[in-house]
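Retro notes - structure team

What went well: the batch runner handled both jobs without manual restarts.
What didn't: labels got mixed up in the shared folder, which is why I'm recording both outputs here explicitly, each with its sequence directly above its tokens.

Job 1
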Amino acid sequence: VVIEREEPKVAPLTAAGAHVIVGDATLEENLKEAGVERASGLAACLPDDADNLYVVLIARDLNRALHIVARAVEEQAEPKLIRAGANRVVAPTIIGSHRMAQALMKPAVADFMDSIAAESLDLGFEQVEVAPSSVYVGKTLKQTNMRSELDTVVVAIRKQRGEVLYHPSGDANIEANDILIVIGRKASLTELNRQARGVS
């Protein structure tokens, strides 16, 4: 569901399959109409930091469990958005600056990241949550089929308690509710997701 107040932008969004509410996202009634009270996630990406701050405040008040990602135009807006209730803040201008620096200082790394994002390569990153009923629970990475059959690489494991294991070894244990950050081909990632969810 998208809330958009500029009429010219509504038609392309609708054509892309989005359900669009024409209105102001900073108004509580529009956020309620969009289903914020029962939603699992919200992206506040208005072009003004004050508006995004207001959206975050209202959304957090309506849904304490909501995962909120907010856009920051100015770098100094980031801590304010976090205090208002955003789980994560993305600053496109800062990301762009970092990306330019990376392309200049570490061109091979930049090329690698671009190649992963390219549709033609059929590679991607995926966030995979391990359900309690998954066949992976209680096994080590090397005991699973993630590398041997699916040809995927687990680059990190985020434990339920918040600890993150970067570049985990084959002896790393997989527990229920772990979140795996995985790279692989899209078909393999789909199958990995299915097995991680415990779907037979």
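Job 2
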Amino acid sequence: MLAVTALSSYGIVLGGEMPSDISNSATSKHHVGPSGGPGSMLACRPLDQIWVVSTRDVGCPKSGEAPALTFSVRTVDGNMQDASLDVFVAATAGMQARFWIHGYGVLPQEAIDVGLAAHERFVAATEPPIRFVVWSWPSEREGYRRVKDIREKGCRTQVEAYCLAWLISQMKADADISLVGYSYGTRVIAGGLHLVGGGEVCGLGLASPTLVLASDQGGQGHAVRRESRNCRAVLLAAAMGSDWLVEGGFNEHALGQTSEMLSIYSSSDRVLKFYPLATREKRDTALGYRGLAPLPPRDEGNGKYAELDVGYLIGGEHDLETYLGHLEITAAAREALAPTTTPGEGGPAK
């Protein structure tokens, strides 16, 4: 009973619930928080763009198919205005795109509210202007069978990974991209980067994401690898397997698409201790509980991976607010996510 209770608590600690279920239709406009209060991050960083990319109307796309994403951007009066893929992709010189991906049990309006809180914590006041992208996916609780719903949402993260990978593939090759996710949101990040690197997730793959056909002197076609993305990623309390990122793992190509990846976890996490119940595999352990096993070599092909055990700070809590409330955690995340461009430059500095 204790194990089931712990697993069921995903629904409380991965996002909670708002008292009202607010529709996120393509034509709706919601107020999204501070519009100029003297102490707000948005007031201190007026040049930041706040975007919401929603997949809540996306079904089950096929490989290579464009998912029906909806885009909106925050206006100066604090409302969300409908936008398009073309507008989103049109990169502003020197502006990083920083994605925030929430966990399980989050309603549409709550995704925006939590996203603004993440913007407060994961963007340094001294950084150049960025595009902060709130990824809103259908993770809200459904039905009364909580454990079953948690497992189903875990499967949904694979669709989300495809949607994220597809969107990244539409961005410029030298786009400065960073990603930060919490719990199930980390699955979306790892799976998305894996797909960008040429992998597949549950039968889904991009249309030749990393390989192009070149002709040699004899006129014969051969596959050559495109330049890898240099994304930076932070995984908070990752509800994914501890071996998913290693060679032969479920998302083995993810690290190859990063210049830096930081996993912040708690070896005392009382919820992720029971992660095997979510996967039905007794030997599974969570990255957010154990750390990466085994650690990959620090070579160019594997990107740069680091991890930080914060169990001494947060104890057994598996709660986003707890992670956001510790300066040591948010400071480490901001450092890992820091832009590699300087104002006025269009490409990565590294």
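One thing worth noting from job 2: The domain at 2-16+26-207+224-337 is CATH 3.40.50 (Rossmann fold).
We'll revisit the folder naming next retro.
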